[in-house]
Specification:
CATH class: Alpha Beta
Bound molecules: the ligand NCc1[nH]cc(CCC(=O)O)c1CC(=O)O, magnesium ion
Radius of gyration: 20 Å
CATH superfamily: Aldolase class I
Number of helices: 13
Distance between the termini: 50 Å
Shape: globular
Strand order of the largest sheet: 1-4-5-6-7-8-9-10
Number of domains: 1
CATH architecture: Alpha-Beta Barrel
Largest sheet: 8 strands, parallel, barrel
Length: 330
C-alpha cells in the first residue's frame, strides 16, 4: 500500500510550522482608519447603516486620533459630513480655508503631528446634487471645471496641514493638475493617494448616508466617471495614467469584490498600492456578525489578511481601530 510522499498537511500539523511558512502578516501599521467629521462639540452621531461608526465632532475626533497613535495605526483618512446650509451648486465650501475639514486638520496636526492625515478630495459632500463634480445643464459632470475645483480643494487641504490628498472623484487628468499646483505652491511633500481604479459600485450606499449626499443624489448615479464593475484591463490603464501624472500611491476601491484587480495592479506596477474596504463591506460584515451568524474578529481579520495576500500595502477600513486592538491582543 503506497501513501503520498508529498503531504502538504505535514506543514500544517503544528502551530510552529504554520507560523514559519505563513506568507503574509497583518499589522496595525498596514491600516488607515476612516472617520467622518461633523460640526459641534462633544457630538457623536451614529450612522444607522454602519452600526458602530459615529460621525464625530472635532474634539471627539481628537480622541479617536489619540487611540490610533496608541495602537500604531499610521494614518487617519477624513471625510466631512457638512450641514445642508454650506452645500451649493459650485461646492465652494470645499476650498474655504476655515471649513470643517481644515479646522479638523489643524487641530489634529497640532496635537498629533506624527499621525498621517489623508484628506478626501471630491466635491460630493459639498454639492447640492450629490455628484463628485460640477454639472452642466444636462446633469453631466464636467471634467475640466471639476478638476479646477479639485485643485483649489487640494491646495486648501495642503495649506491646512493634510499630509496626503486623496482624490476620490475619477475625473481625467486631475492627478497631474493637482501635482503641478502643489509643486508650484511649494507643497512638495504633500503626497497624492489616487483613487485610480474606483468602481461605480453599489457598496457605497452607507457612506453616502454618512456624508449626507445620498438624499441629494437621489436616483442619480456616477456611471459617467466611476468605472464599470465588469472591467479590469481598464483599471490598469487608469492606474498607469495616475502614475504618469504623479501619484505617490494608487488605490483600488471597493476591496473584497475586487481582489483580482488589486493583484493585477500590484503585479503590473509595483507601486504603493492601497485598497479601500468600503462602507457596504463594513455594513455587510456588521449585519452578519451582529446577528451572530459570523464571528466578527475572525472574519474581519480574514478579510484584511486577504487584502495583503492580494497585494495591498495598506488598507483603508472602518475596522482599523478594532482590528489593531485584536492584533495587539487587547
Ligand atoms: N467621493 C465620493 C466617495 N469617497 C469615498 C466613497 C465611498 C467610501 C465608502 O463607501 O466607504 C465615496 C462614495 C461615492 O463615490 O459615491
Ligand atoms: Mg483616471
Amino acid at each position: 500500500m503506497s501513501f503520498p510522499a508529498i503531504r502538504p498537511r505535514r506543514m500544517r500539523r503544528d502551530a510552529f510550522s504554520r507560523a514559519l511558512m505563513r506568507e503574509h502578516t497583518l499589522l496595525p501599521s498596514d491600516l488607515i482608519m476612516v472617520a467622518f467629521v461633523i460640526e459641534g462639540e462633544g457630538r457623536r452621531e451614529p450612522v444607522p447603516s454602519m452600526p458602530g461608526v459615529d460621525r464625530l465632532s472635532i474634539d471627539e475626533l481628537l480622541k479617536l486620533a489619540g487611540e490610533c497613535v496608541r495602537l500604531g495605526i499610521p494614518a487617519l483618512a477624513l471625510f466631512p459630513s457638512p450641514g445642508q446650509e454650506v452645500k451649493s451648486e459650485d461646492a465652494r465650501e470645499a476650498w474655504n480655508p476655515d471649513n470643517l475639514m481644515h479646522r479638523a486638520s489643524r487641530a489634529l496636526k497640532a496635537k498629533y503631528p506624527d499621525l498621517g492625515l489623508v484628506g478626501d478630495v471630491a466635491l460630493d459632500p459639498y454639492t447640492t446634487h450629490g455628484q463628485d463634480g460640477l454639472i452642466d445643464a444636462h446633469g453631466y459632470v464636467m471634467n475640466e471645471p471639476t478638476v479646477e475645483a479639485l485643485v483649489k480643494m487640494s491646495l486648501a487641504q495642503a495649506d491646512a496641514g493634510m499630509d496626503v490628498v486623496a482624490p476620490s472623484d475619477m475625473m481625467d487628468g486631475r492627478i497631474g493638475a493637482i501635482r503641478d499646483a502643489l509643486e508650484a505652491a511649494g507643497h512638495i511633500h504633500t503626497r497624492i493617494l489616487a483613487y485610480s481604479a474606483k468602481y461605480a459600485s453599489s457598496f457605497y450606499g452607507p457612506f453616502r448616508d454618512a456624508v449626507g449626499s445620498s438624499a441629494n443624489l437621489g436616483k442619480g448615479n456616477k456611471h459617467t466617471y466611476q468605472m464599470d464593475v465588469a472591467n479590469s484591463d481598464e483599471a490598469l490603464r487608469e492606474v498607469e495614467l495616475d502614475i504618469q501624472e504623479g501619484a505617490d500611491m494608487v488605490m483600488v476601491k471597493p476591496g473584497l469584490p475586487y481582489l483580482d484587480v488589486l493583484r493585477r495592479v500590484k503585479d503590473a506596477f509595483g507601486m504603493p498600492t492601497f485598497v479601500y474596504q468600503v462602507s457596504g463591506e463594513y455594513a455587510m460584515l456588521k449585519a452578519a456578525t451582529q446577528n451572530g451568524w459570523l464571528d466578527e474578529k475572525a472574519v474581519v481579520l480574514e478579510t484584511l489578511t486577504a487584502f495583503k495576500r492580494a497585494g495591498a500595502d495598506a488598507i483603508l477600513t472602518y475596522f482599523a481601530v478594532d482590528a489593531a486592538r485584536w492584533l495587539r491582543g487587547e
